[in-house]
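> forwarded from #structure-qc
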């Protein structure tokens, strides 16, 4: 598909679209494909799934700035709202389709429980070190940032602020 044709079709499409950029030789693409096809059937008439072979469309991949596959790009009202690179778990794919079908902005499930735990522990240790060193503000702040980095994606205030920034078109 020519890039211009793709962008024209995405603009005219009445429903949200999940674009799956894949290749026949790609093992991770083969893992994701059955889940995507099942979700496309489940969300039929609410979210469209476009499967685009990366090997046959290098110009489109270049225009979309896709550097790895599988890549999933979610579009709503002709605009990219989310991008996933690599294999994602079934529940995250379901969340993608559900978010697009309801018109909300999909938020990637970024951190694993282990990542969150490690950040919380190290943040607590750094805060403890700052507290023991006569309230060293630099260490206290660094520890606070580490702890916040473990939970920011679940913070409703953070979500509200970042959603507003995403709506702004920067020129």
């Amino acid at each position: 598909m020519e890039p211009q044709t793709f962008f024209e079709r995405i603009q005219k499409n009445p429903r949200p679209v999940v674009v799956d950029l894949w290749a026949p030789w790609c093992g991770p693409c083969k893992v994701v494909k059955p889940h995507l096809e099942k979700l496309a059937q489940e969300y039929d008439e609410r979210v469209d799934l476009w499967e685009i072979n990366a090997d046959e469309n290098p110009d489109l991949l270049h225009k979309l700035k896709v550097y790895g596959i599988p890549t999933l790009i979610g579009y709503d009202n002709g605009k990219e709202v989310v991008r996933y690179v690599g294999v994602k778990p079934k529940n995250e794919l379901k969340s993608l389709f559900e978010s697009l079908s309801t018109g909300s902005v999909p938020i990637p499930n970024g951190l694993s429980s282990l990542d969150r735990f490690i950040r919380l522990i190290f943040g607590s240790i750094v805060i403890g070190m700052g507290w023991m060193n006569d309230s060293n503000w630099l260490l206290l702040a660094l520890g606070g940032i580490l702890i916040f980095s473990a939970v920011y994606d679940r913070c409703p205030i953070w979500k509200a602020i970042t959603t507003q920034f995403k709506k702004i078109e920067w020129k």
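QC bot note: The helical segments are 3-12, 27-42, 58-64, 90-102, 113-132, 137-151, 156-167. Residues 113-132 form the longest helix (20 residues).
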